[in-house]
Each structure stands twice: as C-alpha cells, then as structure tokens.
Design goal:
The complex is a heterotrimer of chains A (about 425), B (about 300) and C (about 290).
Chain A: H1 2-19, E1 29-35, H2 44-57, E2 61-67, H3 70-82, E3 89-93, H4 97-103, H5 109-115, H6 130-135, E4 137-138, E5 141-142, E6 145-146, E7 152-157, H7 158-163, H8 175-183, E8 187-188, E9 194-196, H9 208-213, H10 231-242, H11 249-262, E10 274-278, H12 280-288, E11 294-297, E12 310-311, E13 315-319, H13 327-340, H14 343-353, H15 360-367, H16 371-380, E14 383-384, H17 398-409, H18 414-435
Parallel strand pairs in A: 1-2, 12-14
Antiparallel strand pairs in A: 3-13, 4-5, 6-13, 7-10, 7-11, 8-9
Helix pairs in contact in A: 2-14, 14-15, 17-18
Chain B: H1 2-45, E1 48-49, E2 57-58, H2 62-69, H3 72-103, H4 110-122, H5 125-136, H6 142-154, H7 168-176, H8 181-191, H9 196-204, H10 209-236, H11 241-246, H12 258-267, H13 272-300
Antiparallel strand pairs in B: 1-2
Helix pairs in contact in B: 3-7, 3-8, 3-10, 3-12, 4-8, 8-10, 10-13, 12-13
Chain C: H1 2-45, H2 49-54, H3 67-75, H4 78-109, H5 115-125, H6 130-144, H7 151-158, H8 164-175, H9 179-187, H10 192-203, H11 205-221, H12 224-229, H13 238-243, H14 253-278
Helix pairs in contact in C: 1-14, 3-14, 4-7, 4-8, 4-11, 11-14
The chains are: A alpha+beta (about 425), B mainly alpha (about 300), C mainly alpha (about 290).
C-alpha cells in the first residue's frame, strides 16, 4: 500500500513538473503564426524553412510557427479567437473577414500600412486582386489580406478524348457543346449499371450557385433577401437535372456511390471524362503518381448571355487583436506579415503548399512552363467569392444541401424545392432579425 | 448497554455521513471547482446571442422562443432523435446481451473471438463507414444481394436502406450495432460475479441452458443491463457522428438528429447562443426521461442488498 | 445394465461437442463482418499510391509495402508523441481509477445527505455535449494559466472529471456486493476506508479492469482534447499526429492507415490480455471444462 502511494506521488510530482514546464523566454519578441502544415505533412519542412529564414534575417523578432491539419485548424482558431488567445498571425477564410472585423478581433491592416516607413517588403496592393480585397474591407479599411486564391475549371481526360478522335480544340465552351460531347463518353451495361460518364453537373467541385452565377443569378439580392424561385433559377436547376436524364437517378446515384466505395476520385480513375474541380485536383493527380493525360479549360457557359465566372475563394492572412498586444508584438507580426506576402515567399509557398497564392506577379512566375497551372491561374481572374450572409453563413452548404439533394433525388419537384428553400432562408432571416433588434 | 447502543447508532450514522462526503470528495471538488463555471457559463450563453467573436449579447428567452415557435427543423430533428432512442435502445440491449451470452462460453479460442468482436470499437470510423457502404448500398451492397431471392419471392422492391427517408434511421441503428462490443464487455465483467455454485446446483436440478440463462444469468446481470439502459438513453439522445459520416443528415433530413442540428447551429450558423439553448433543452428532456427510468431501478434490478 | 448407464454419458459429450461446433460456426460467421474493416485498413496500408486510386478494383495489395509502416513512423515524431500519449494516459487512468472508485463507493454503499441529488447531477453532466462548454472551459483554463501545460488534460481525471460514466458503472457493480460483507466488517470495528480497500476493491476486479480498459482506450484515442488544450506541439500525442496524414485533398491514405494500425495495436493487445485475465467464462455444462 505505502509503496503504491509513494509511486503515485512521485508520478504526480514528476508530471506536474513536466506539465508546468514553461517555454524559455527568448531575448527577442515572440510572434506566433498558425498555419496548416503540421509536422508530418509534406509541406512542413519547407514552411518551417521559410520561417527560419525570416528569423535568421533579423534579430528583433522570433516567429514561432505551429501547423495544424486542415480539418483541425478551424476548431483551433475559432476557440482561440473566442477566448482572445489568438496567435499573432493566422489564416482564415476571406469571405467572412467583415464579420470578424466588425467584432473587433482583427487588427487594422490599412493603419499598419500607412504607418509603415521601413521600406522592407512594403505591401503593394496592385499585386492583389481587388475582388478579394473588397471582401476584406470593412468601413473603408483593410482588415486582412488575401493569402491564397482558388478557382474552378473543367478538367478533361485527353486520353479518352483521343480514343474518340477529339483533341484539345474540341473542349466544350458552351453548355450545349458540353452536353453533346459528354454523351459521347457514356457507357452503360446491359443491366443498366453506369460504368462511365462523360460529365455530370453535380460531380466534383460543382455547386448550384456556381452554375447560377454564369447566368448572372444568385441566391440573394443586394439586400441579402433570398431570391431563389424565379423562372430563371428554375431553368438552371432543370438544366442540371436533365443533363443525364437518359439514366435514372438511382443509376446515377449508384455510379456516384460506387466511386465512394471504390475510394476513388472519378476523374483520376477514368470513370468520368470531364469534371469541374478546383486547383486541388492538380495536386491530387500530381501526388498520386497517376499518369493520365489531361487538359484544363474554363467551365462551359450558357449559350446565351453566359458570363465567364467561377467560384473562387481563398484564405486570408489576418493579425489578431487580443486586447493586450504590445507594440513590439504588433510591429514584429506586421514585419512577418509583409514577408509572407512578398513575391519570393509567395512563390516558395506556392511550390511547397501546392496552393495558388494571391500575389499576382509571384503566381505568374510560379506557373510559367506548366500549362495546367497556367490555365488554373487564368481562371482566378474570373473567380468570384460567395457573399457573406449573416443570418445564414452556410447558405451554400448545410442550409441548401438538404433541398438540393431532395430535388436531385426527385423527392421534391424543382419548383417545390426552390420554394421550400426560399421559405427556409426567410425564416432564418426573420429569426436573426428578432435576435438582433 | 442500551444507552451505548443508541449512541453508537447515531455515531455510526454521523460517521457514515462524513465518510460519504470524504469518499465523494474528489468528484465533488472537481465538479464545483472545475465543472461549475463552464456549465453555468453555457447556461448563461443560452440567453444571449453569441457569435464566438464579439462578446455575448443578452437576448433573454428569445433563443428558446424561436426554437419552439419559429423553427421547423428543430421539431424535425427532435423527432428523429426520439425515434432513434425508442428503437436503438431495446435493440442495442438485446444484441449486447446475446453477444455476451455467446462469448461467455469457455471454448477454445474464445479470447480471440472476443477481441474480434471488440475490433469495431477500436477501428477508425472511416474504415467502418466503408464496411457499411459495402453492406448496405441498395444497388450493389452485399445485404441486398443476399436478400434478392426474398425480394423476388415476395415481389417487392429492394429495401433502399439509407437512401430512403423511411428506412434511413433504422439503417443507421443497424450500423450502430457493430459497436455493441463495448456493452458486451460490461456484461461479461458482470457475469464473472455470478457464483458458479448457482449454476452447479441448477445443473443438479436438471436445468438446461435456457433455464439457466433466464433464471440465473439474466437476473444477476440486471445491474449492468440497467446501466447500459440508462447510458443508452443518455447516449442515444446525443446521436450524431454516424449520420455526419454516412448520410449528412439526409435523405430529406430524415437522419438530421438533434445533436447534428445543434452542431450546425454552432459551426455553420455561428450561433452559439442558440446552440447552447438547444443543449439545455436536451438536458431537461434527457433528465426527465432518465429520472423516470431510474425509478425502475428498485423494481427491475436484482441486487444483493437494497439500492 | 451397464450399457444403459454408459450410453447417456457419451451422448452428453457428443451433445456438448455439437453445441461447441455450432457456436464456433456462428462466431466465425459473425466475425467476418467484424473483422472486415480491419482487413481493409491493413490492405490499404500495404498498397502503393497508384493502387489506392483503383479502390476496390484492386482489393488485395499486389506488392505489400511494409515500409509504409516505417514511413508512417518516421514522418511524424512518433517516439515523442508516444511518450506524450503515455504520460497522459498513465496519469489519466490512475486518476480515474482513484476518483471514480471512491466516488462510486460513496454512491453505492454510504448514506450521506444530498446523495440522491448529487447522483442526478452527476448523470446530468453526461447529458451536456462537450462543444457547448468548450469555449467557457478554455477561457477558464486560460484564466488560471494552465493553457501552455498538460494540466487541463490530466488534473480533471483525479477529480472525477469525465468519469461520470465510470462512476455510474462502478456504482452498479459495488451495489452488487452483498451488504452482509460490509456489515459484518463494521461490527468487527473496521472503518469504511478499510472496507473499501480490503473488501470492495478486491471483489471488483472485473469492473476495475473494465474501467481501466475503457479509460485507456478513450484517452489514447482522444485527439480533440489534446488538440484544443495543448498549445505546445512538443506535447502533442499520437492521436493528433495521426491527423497530419489527412490533408485537405484526401492525403496519403496508405500512410494514414499504417499509422492508425500502429496506434490501434496497444489497445487491442491490452484488451486481449485484460479480458483473458478477468473473464473466465462458463461452460455449457457449468461444471468442468
């Protein structure tokens, strides 16, 4: 008994000591930077290298970087921001910067820019897209800078094109061309099972709002009222539903779930000839060692009055206001902030993370010589981000998906589905206003 | 002599009272010092509008009123959860008990079997989700393949399992049975406390294994059966992960459980105040149900002594 | 006459053998369903990235990449994370066993004022989802200054934190211990502390092992607690390390499965030996083996 108690006390004591081990303080001001390249990730060492380079290039500030896996990053940053223990610099999503700026948790970048007389890595706003910076602007000041920029494009399998005598020049540019070419690739077994599809407007990284934008439509008007069930919206929805109408919905679902079950990406396993995806697919194909020949082009637009636009988002780079930041911390963080947004570092980040970064010239240099990346970068100029709706921040995701899947599965007619969705948003708007009177 | 006895009983009671507090002190200290603040804070937050960035703003009962009077999804998600609880608990209890009865036998390799049956509790849920797709996929899953002669025989359409709003909840419940290994272990532990002498004397009286099971094993297992029953209620009301992984709450929100809706309120809507209100409503519901269930304790559970 | 007496004995043995055979068959059939996910994990861990792309079209790995296990171990600081996991797990299991048994004894065997009320409160703590109290908890620890330490993950275990499940479980088991045992001990002049250590605990070995096993498993696999409360990556556990393999666009499933299997093994091994030690089981006949 006594022995057990003694062992127990020793264990507790040693761990308490271990547990309370605080960091040895550096002479330099410490800056914390949270990113998405955790230890074990392929990009970890290059990101760490960039941080080390900065630390060695000067002796006033010391940046400590911590990487979390993409899926865990958001829990971490949300809890940190909520408890005002956020890092000096972190990443977030650019489309809702305004809500954080309004809550006062972000530092004013415009003020920092105006006060910056150092001449080192000075932020040149011409190197960043106005559309992205608009999202980061609150009451005429910038509260974040765009860090990365995504786009969506049409990926098509050149080998499969070749089999049917098609070349890159035949890549579809309009919706009707898309339909015609897609049908050429469909393969259906005798028992009805679909084993290959040319294209489906619901596969890959497509979204209903992405198709709507090509006709100048959206879910909301300028006052953020839902405008879902107009005849024009219905037209787009019917186009999506009718695209593969030769197959029953259950056959298409089975094909889709076969992909999930096989654990494959339908494009890389060559079960689909064309697919809309973001620049991430380039990464997937690259790291998987797959050897398919493929091309990338703009997503086809409606035959009449079509607008060349795609959904592009991006991460924002933000400096957090915990209410107790010292001047030295802010100065040091801003110094590292500019470093991260400078041309050479943006190129290096693109190479290590495989993301398309936000710095325009840097990316032009980065993609040079790679036609796929060049095409993906070109689409960024036509990309638009989704509007932030305070009463339904996930309007395109959890709110919409339930109606969308019911319409696609045929459980709701398109008209009924759009009407129900609109009523849902209206109810959310009503409740939000009740709470914010 | 009599005076001493009375004094002793009072003393004993006082000592017992003190001892009770002493033994419970670790937990009591824990809940008062470390537990009270977060719990009370979340109660307070349920009366505010809190987006997790700005400070919470007091709104009084508005969150609760909105949930009860102007939120269709609230009632749907609540019904989904109640449906789940009503079916999953009896089914889970039965399967767990059957597994434990099966695995309490002393045959060769039983240790390996027990470990195999426990595997799903340890394996990653990604791997489990693939198994379930492989089994339950309506068009080419194993279960419908095996059942196709039956479908033909009765001239009925194959069951659509998780693809149909009418069968999706039951499908998820069936999937959940794979982790019955957890409750099985608890039953097995309880069964070791059953004195072998009882079985021996029953044997002498000529009882077969059915009689032994129903007259000895099951009655003496009631403390752990009751435990799994209560925990089943508490856990069942918080069902979420399996829908999140397998069906995204569909089809047609048929598997959109209460806890899933609460999660979305927090993560997607950034409405922490409303989510907290949902949590406290659930707490009250589960508490009431549990307290009813606890009343059964005295009637249903066979103990060596009073409760 | 002798033949008539001998016959029943043979038949009984045969009956037992048949029963056992049926049992084996049933168990094997059921096991297939239970083992399948693990097999899929194993095969995935042994495939090449190109094979992964093919999914089920290639169920078995053609060229088992056993080095994936080595790669998984070297890509993350496996030994550091292992050490961190062990520190936390050992302390939490100890703390939980300590605080849960004492509290369960109080609920099961002792009469004290407010016991029923506190029991309900204890159950109620199981009914609050962690996400709703996460931010206030975090703020509380930030205020105390424990955020840069492991304390938020360890200290609560010694005070019954997260142990309501086990307290309830142990209470049920303790209540099954005959009253007469403790009563006679009291008459003999034993204190409750002595009863606790000399009677209750020794008689509850299966329950204690169950609690130990479950606590081990829950803590070993817990990535959320360490993720939120451990700000220093040098304190990270294996469960967090595993998340690194799951990148934004799918990631290296082969390495992830290899790492998952390695991390899963301790639990399986402990389970195997634990249940072997405390589950004797009974035979169909109930008497001899």
């Amino acid at each position: 008994m006594k022995k057990v108690l003694l062992m127990f006390l020793v264990m507790v004591a040693s761990v308490t000591l271990l547990g309370c081990n605080k960091e040895a303080t550096e002479e330099r001001t410490e800056i914390t930077f949270w990113h998405m390249s955790p230890v074990g990730d392929v990009s970890y060492s290059s990101v760490k290298g960039l941080i080390t380079d900065f630390n060695e290039s000067q002796d006033l500030y010391f940046v400590k970087g911590v990487g979390f896996s993409f899926w865990d990053y958001w829990d971490k940053i949300n809890v940190a921001v909520a408890s005002r223990t956020a890092p000096s610099i972190g990443l977030s999503t650019i489309d809702d910067v305004v809500s954080r700026a309004e809550s006062g948790v972000l530092l004013n970048i415009s003020d920092l820019m105006d006060a910056d007389t150092s001449g080192i890595n000075t932020l040149d706003l011409n190197e960043f897209r106005q559309s992205q910076m608009d999202f980061a602007t609150y009451e005429e000041d910038l509260y974040a800078m765009p860090f990365s920029a995504t786009s969506r494009a049409l990926f098509y399998n050149l080998d499969m094109f070749d089999e049917l005598g098609l070349t890159e020049a035949d890549a579809p540019t309009t919706w009707s061309e898309l339909e015609t070419i897609a049908k050429m690739f469909d393969i259906q077994e005798a028992d009805g099972t679909v084993t290959r599809l040319g294209f489906d407007p619901t596969y890959g990284d497509t979204t209903y709002h992405g198709w709507l934008w090509q006709s100048g439509l959206d879910f909301f008007d300028e006052d953020l009222n839902p405008t879902l069930n107009t005849p024009e919206h219905l037209e787009v929805l019917n186009w999506i539903l009718d695209f593969n109408k030769d197959f029953t919905r259950s056959q298409l679902t089975a094909f889709g779930e076969a992909n999930a079950m096989l654990g494959v990406n339908p494009f890389t396993s060559e079960r689909v000839a064309m697919i809309v995806s973001n620049d991430g697919l380039y990464q997937t194909i690259d790291t998987s060692g797959s050897d398919i020949n493929y091309g990338v082009t703009s997503i086809p637009i409606p035959d009449e009055n079509g607008i060349h636009v795609c959904w592009g988002s991006g991460f924002s780079l933000e400096m957090y206001d915990n209410g107790d930041n010292t001047d030295a911390e802010v100065a040091g963080a801003y110094s590292f902030y500019k470093y991260l947004l400078s041309e050479p570092v943006q190129i290096a980040l693109g190479e290590s993370l495989g993301w398309l970064m936000s710095h325009i010239t840097a990316m032009e240099k980065y993609v040079e010589g790679d036609p796929i990346l060049e095409a993906l970068l070109a689409e960024v100029d036509y990309s638009m981000d989704k509007v932030y709706v305070p009463y339904a921040p996930a309007w395109h995701a959890s709110d919409w998906q339930t109606y969308y899947t019911q319409i696609l599965d045929g459980d709701l007619t398109p008209e009924a589905g759009l009407l129900a969705a609109r009523n849902h948003y209206l109810q959310k708007q009503e409740n939000y206003n009740t709470l914010h009177e | 002599m009599k005076k001493q006895s009375i004094g002793s009983i009072k003393q004993l009671k006082k000592t017992e009272n003190r001892m009770g507090y002493l033994f419970a002190s670790p937990w009591l200290i824990g809940i008062i010092v470390l537990g009270a603040f977060p719990i009370l804070a979340s109660f307070y937050i349920s009366f505010t509008s809190y987006d997790m960035a700005s400070a919470p703003v007091w709104v009084g009962l508005k969150n609760y009123i909105i949930l009860f009077t102007n939120d269709d999804v609230f009632w749907k998600s609540l019904w989904n959860t109640i449906y789940h609880v009503l079916i999953a608990i009896p089914l889970g209890l039965i399967v767990g008990i059957i597994l434990a009865l099966l695995l309490n036998n002393k045959i060769r390799g039983m240790s390996i079997y027990r470990t195999l049956f426990y595997l799903p509790c340890v394996v990653s849920i990604v791997a489990m989700s693939l198994l379930w797709l492989w089994l339950f996929q309506p068009q080419f899953g194993i279960i419908n393949e095996v059942l196709s002669p039956l479908y033909k025989l009765f001239n009925m359409e194959p069951i659509l399992w998780y693809q149909s709003a009418s069968t999706s909840k039951i499908t998820l419940i069936l999937m959940g049975l794979w982790t019955a290994g957890g409750s099985m272990v608890i039953y097995l532990a309880q069964m070791q406390d059953i004195p072998k002498s009882l079985y021996e004397s029953a044997e002498v009286d000529g009882a077969n294994w059915i009689q032994k099971t129903f007259s000895i094993t099951l009655p003496l297992m009631t403390p752990s059966i009751f435990f799994n029953f209560i925990m089943g209620i508490i856990g069942g009301f918080q069902v979420f992960t399996i829908a999140y992984i397998m069906t995204n709450g569909g089809p047609a929100q048929s598997t959109y459980y209460y806890a899933y809706y609460m999660f979305d309120k927090m993560m997607s809507d950034q409405a922490m105040g409303m989510a907290s209100a949902m949590a406290w409503i659930l707490l009250v519901i589960v508490l009431i149900v549990t307290m009813f269930a606890l009343r059964l304790n005295k009637k249903v559970v066979y103990l060596g002594e009073e409760g | 006459m002798e033949a008539a007496i001998k016959k029943p004995r043979l038949t009984k043995k045969q009956r037992t053998r048949v029963k056992n055979l049926i049992l084996h068959l049933v168990l094997i059939l059921c096991s297939v369903g239970f083992v399948f996910p693990f097999l899929w994990m194993l095969f995935t861990a042994l495939k090449t990235p190109q094979e992964l792309l093919l999914g089920f079209q290639q169920f078995f790995p053609s060229d088992p990449q056993w080095m994936n296990f080595k790669k998984a171990v070297t890509m993350i600081p496996f030994l550091l994370y292992l050490k961190n996991s062990l520190i936390i797990v050992i302390l939490v299991v100890t703390g939980t066993l300590f605080s849960a048994t004492t509290t369960a004894y109080a609920f099961a065997k002792l009469r004290w004022k407010g016991k029923e009320k506190w029991f309900i409160i204890m159950l109620a703590t199981l009914m609050i989802p962690i996400q709703v109290i996460l931010i206030p908890t975090y703020i509380m620890y930030s205020y105390i200054g424990w955020l840069s330490t492991r304390l938020p993950l360890i200290v609560p275990a010694f005070f019954g934190g997260g142990a309501a499940f086990y307290i309830f479980l142990l209470r049920q088991f303790f209540m099954g211990v005959p009253k007469e045992l403790s009563e006679s001990a009291i008459i003999d002049g034993a204190s409750h502390i002595q009863i606790f250590f000399k009677i209750m605990l020794p008689l509850s070995k299966p329950a204690l092992m169950t609690v130990g096993l479950f606590t081990f498993m829950a803590t070993w696999n817990d990535y959320f607690g360490p993720l939120i409360f451990l700000s220093n990556p040098d304190h990270w556990t294996l469960a967090i390390g595993l998340r690194a393999f799951q990148t934004r666009f799918g990631g290296r499933y082969d390495l992830m499965m290899a790492a998952s299997i390695l991390i899963m093994l301790p639990t399986l091994i402990i389970f195997f030996f634990a249940q072997k030690s405390f589950i004797e089981g009974i035979t169909f006949t109930g008497i001899k083996g």
